[in-house]
Write a structure and sequence with these properties.
This protein is α+β, with helices and mostly antiparallel strands and 145 residues long. Helices cover 31% and strands 27% of the residues. It is built from four helices and five strands; from the N terminus they run E-H-H-E-E-E-H-E-H. The protein is globular, with a radius of gyration of 15 Å.
Length: 145
């Protein structure tokens, strides 16, 4: 089951964010204060964010955080899969595929769905390729954190 985040889920999401940022799927830690800022923005109804909880057999299996924008290059709305985290015990059971099916139904007008992945995360890379994702040959640059 995939459901939208609710304010009552705050402690759960803070814990899931912490699990994700202490996993090999990310390059570096981020301050816990950022987690609070994200949840505050979601709860305030930011039109740029969507947060979903993934459940399996009544248990919390993970979450997905989306950043919503527009791209001239893509010719329309873009859904950035900012973060997807599936707890280790729930991996390999089809939750990733289920989420992408949900994503395509929930955002049918998206001109592009974009994500990034740590290259060593082979399971995720296989899933993304099976789902039709292609590698963009851009170098990414950031300013700030």
């Amino acid at each position: 089951m995939i459901r939208k985040y609710e304010a009552a889920d705050r402690a759960l999401l803070l814990s899931l964010f912490d699990e994700f940022y202490h996993s090999p799927a990310v390059l570096h830690l981020v301050p816990a204060a950022f987690f609070e800022k994200t949840l505050n923005a979601v709860q305030a109804g930011s039109p740029f964010l969507a947060l979903y909880i993934l459940e399996s057999d009544g248990q919390t299996a993970g979450y997905a955080l989306l950043a919503l924008s527009y791209s001239n290059e893509a010719g329309g709305p873009v859904v950035w899969l900012e973060e997807i985290y599936i707890r280790p015990d729930f991996r390999g059971h089809g939750l990733g595929n289920e989420f992408f099916d949900f994503l395509e139904k929930e955002y049918p007008d998206a001109a592009r769905i974009r994500l990034e992945v740590e290259p060593d995360n082979e399971g995720a890379v296989r899933l993304y390729r099976r789902r039709g994702f292609k590698k963009l040959d851009y170098d990414q640059y950031i300013r700030g954190v």
